Amino acid sequence: MPTIKIQRPNNFIGRIRKFKVYVDDIEIGAVSNGQTQEFQITAGQHKIYCKQDIFTSRFLYDFSIEENETKTLTVQYLNKPIFSILLVIGIVISALSSQWLTSFLNINKEFWLVFYVVFVFIILLLMKASKQFTINISE
Q1: Quick one: 109 and 59 in the same domain?
Q2: Do residues 58 and 26 share a domain?
Q3: Is residue 113 predicted with pLDDT exceeding 60?
């Protein structure tokens, strides 16, 4: 029986969420951070991609596999750090200065919380739109 082995290197980004693995648009399983999983598939031509929440592989990976063959693929985030840096800076600033800013600007904590949630949501949308976090599949 043909086997695909999916390796996911240990990485800080997205570490607590699994990558769902799809072959020919059918979910066949998931792989956690730093883990390797093996999946039995049929021989022939296939397309594979991975998803994690709103992030999806940029490209479908086409491959062909023979009977009793094992193909090893690596899946990982292919990211550019600019939006990650903005997100971390925003979290740190909001955590450290929320008390000071709420008293200085005379705003209540509920407003600050809404602002923070909207900020994180906008950064995540920008990350998705600019493909900052794309799941890359390679041999």
Answers
A1: no
A2: yes
A3: yes
